[in-house]
Specification:
The protein has 261 residues and is of the alpha+beta class. It is built from 6 helices and 10 strands. The chain has 2 domains: 148 residues, Thiol Ester Dehydrase, Chain A, CATH 3.10.129; 106 residues, Thiol Ester Dehydrase, Chain A.
């Protein structure tokens, strides 16, 4: 007989395989970092669909999940053609948000990357709302004692490396704003534009990114990007018109075995 506790725990987990396509890799032949977030997002949706909560279910109730924060560690290189096993798990809830953990594993079982994603629930007007009871019933995860991930990043100093970006049509997702993974592309572009040693960090492993999404950039809007050195790494700030903060992020060396479970 299957223990009810084991059955409930099994409902919190899901996995899928993703083969790294040619267009998902950069000039070095390795998977672009942003695609790790895309895989984590997609496997989370596949998990939800498998338990009967598909996009039509959310649309009918005027509800949506949006990413408020993410923590990503890149541990191993992932070449073109490699098939990753991506595992997702609902870690727990608070009143208006939930946390998922995703692990990306190479064919030999080694951990290539892990992602913690904090999702908040909004209604059709973009207001924060309580996670419905139906979701708790399908995903019986515990109540979290932690708070939403925060990434304290001040205004950039005068000597910060800066450059401008424009939100392009192909970067918009079905919610008509840049997908959370696009901000990782912008983060790494900003570090590369900052020159060494920031540029060297982008190809180093293990490396750790912590991202707090403060607001959504609009289609066609301009984004002011800034990067500057901080303790044990770099700070990155993206801002929209009128200096509205879009992203606060840090980038630095990862900690070997920190994400292993």
């Amino acid at each position: 007989m299957i223990d009810a506790t084991d059955e409930a725990a099994a409902r919190l987990r899901h996995s899928a395989r993703y083969r790294v396509r040619f267009d998902e890799a950069g000039p070095d032949g390795l998977l672009r970092t942003s695609n790790l977030l895309r895989y984590a997002q997609d496997v989370g949706w596949r998990h939800s669909e498998a338990l009967g909560l598909d996009r039509a279910w959310y649309d009918a109730r005027g509800l949506a999940w949006v990413v408020r924060a993410a923590e990503l560690e890149i541990v191993e290189p992932v070449p073109i053609g490699v098939e990753l096993e991506v595992r997702t798990e609902v870690v727990g809830y608070q009143r208006i948000w939930a946390r998922r953990r995703a692990e990306c594993r190479l064919p030999d079982g080694r951990l290539a990357a892990w992602v913690h994603t904090d999702w908040v629930m909004i209604d059709g007007r973009g207001r924060l709302v309580r996670v419905p009871a139906e979701i708790h019933e399908r995903f019986p995860a515990p109540v979290l004692t932690e708070t939403l991930l925060r990434v304290p990043v001040p205004a950039p100093p005068p000597d910060a490396a800066t450059h401008g970006l424009v939100v392009r049509p192909h970067e918009l997702d079905p919610m008509n704003h840049p997908n959370n993974a696009v901000y990782v592309d912008w983060l790494e572009e900003t570090l590369l534009m900052a020159g060494d040693p920031a540029a060297g960090l982008v190809s180093s492993r293990p490396r750790l990114y912590r991202l707090e999404y403060a607001a959504a950039a609009g289609a066609g809007s301009t984004v002011a990007a800034a990067a500057w050195p901080a303790d044990h790494g770099w700070m990155v700030r993206l801002a929209g018109p009128n200096d509205e903060v879009l992203l606060r992020a840090t980038a630095g060396p990862g900690v070997p075995d920190r994400g292993v479970r």
